[in-house]
Request: fold
Amino acid sequence: MTEAERPPSRPGPSLQYLSGYPAELLARVDTLLAQGSLLDTLTRRHGPPHSMRTDGALYGYVSDIKGRFMRSAVPLSRIAYDNKLHVVRNALGMHSVVSRVQGGRIKAKREIRIAGLFREVPEPLLRMIVVHELAHLKERMHDRAFYALCRHMEPAYDQLEFDARLWLTAVEAQAARPAGGPAAGSG
Ligand SMILES: [Zn+2]
Reply:
């Protein structure tokens, strides 16, 4: 099975967040997407949207997790939701070092920005993205050490990252669908 043998229309842009996951898993996702029931399935699994909807609430939430697991990591100058973060390019948030000249010295300031879309997800999915961004304070690359740190902070990290990718997939599919949802939607 080479890349070239795959029909060009599959897996399609709707599964762009899920490349690399097993085909049989993606087939199930496709079915749920076609039924328009992926978001409901995830909501049943993870619960209603969390309540950390403001930057202030997010700051407290992130600080709490950082205090428990990453006490020695560099302080964060800013923690905020960012509605301008492009979900496609920055599906898993954005971590940045902002360099500023201060008194002749360049001072690196750490910021955590979370895509605005995570304002409306169940709490476990917010936790996943926060853990992901916190881990980047110590590990820059998405390597073995990085994921080990993520799992240290959240043992179910891998499942939650997959489910967050499903969530993004479902939200985009819903936005792309004509108003009224799937034509055959009943029950
Ligand atoms: Zn990352």
Notes: The chain has six helices and three strands. The longest helix spans residues 157-176.
